[in-house]
């Protein structure tokens, strides 16, 4: 169950990052509220997953999901550049997430 909580926490990190961008520096009410609510939920789920997962594993995977997800949303939704170097960097992050999961001794 900890892995499910961690995956949901990572997904919510993508959501709050997107809405933080859309909040225009926290000047728009609805995107700002969504940012704050999903941040709290993401942190709460991360905290629950850390009850049984190692700190380094949980935090690395959480930030990795958020980083790669926000990167993908930036390209697909916001039209940000998809250069070869950026794509390679994303691939390296994904490989790090996979290695961290494979090396985990947590449940």
From TrEMBL:
<keyword id="KW-0472">Membrane</keyword>
<dbReference type="GO" id="GO:0005886">
    <property type="term" value="C:plasma membrane"/>
</dbReference>
<feature type="transmembrane region" description="Helical">
    <location>
        <begin position="84"/>
        <end position="102"/>
    </location>
</feature>
<dbReference type="Pfam" id="PF00893">
    <property type="entry name" value="Multi_Drug_Res"/>
</dbReference>
<dbReference type="GO" id="GO:1990961">
    <property type="term" value="P:xenobiotic detoxification by transmembrane export across the plasma membrane"/>
</dbReference>
<comment type="similarity">
    <text>Belongs to the drug/metabolite transporter (DMT) superfamily. Small multidrug resistance (SMR) (TC 2.A.7.1) family. Gdx/SugE subfamily.</text>
</comment>
<dbReference type="InterPro" id="IPR037185">
    <property type="entry name" value="EmrE-like"/>
</dbReference>
<dbReference type="InterPro" id="IPR045324">
    <property type="entry name" value="Small_multidrug_res"/>
</dbReference>
<keyword id="KW-0812">Transmembrane</keyword>
<keyword id="KW-1003">Cell membrane</keyword>
<dbReference type="GO" id="GO:0022857">
    <property type="term" value="F:transmembrane transporter activity"/>
</dbReference>
<feature type="transmembrane region" description="Helical">
    <location>
        <begin position="58"/>
        <end position="78"/>
    </location>
</feature>
<keyword id="KW-0813">Transport</keyword>
<protein>
    <recommendedName>
        <fullName>Guanidinium exporter</fullName>
    </recommendedName>
</protein>
<keyword id="KW-1133">Transmembrane helix</keyword>
<dbReference type="InterPro" id="IPR000390">
    <property type="entry name" value="Small_drug/metabolite_transptr"/>
</dbReference>
<feature type="transmembrane region" description="Helical">
    <location>
        <begin position="27"/>
        <end position="46"/>
    </location>
</feature>
């Amino acid at each position: 169950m900890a892995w499910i909580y961690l995956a949901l926490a990572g997904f919510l990190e993508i959501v709050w990052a997107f809405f933080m961008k859309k909040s225009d520096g926290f000047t728009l009410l609805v995107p700002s509220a969504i940012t704050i609510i999903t941040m709290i939920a993401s942190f709460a789920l991360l905290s629950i997953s850390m009850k049984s997962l190692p700190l380094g594993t949980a935090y690395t995977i959480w930030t990795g999901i958020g980083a790669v997800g926000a990167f993908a949303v930036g390209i697909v939704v916001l039209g940000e550049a998809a250069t070869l170097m950026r794509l390679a960097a994303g691939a390296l992050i994904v490989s790090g997430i996979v290695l961290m999961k494979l090396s985990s001794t947590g449940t």
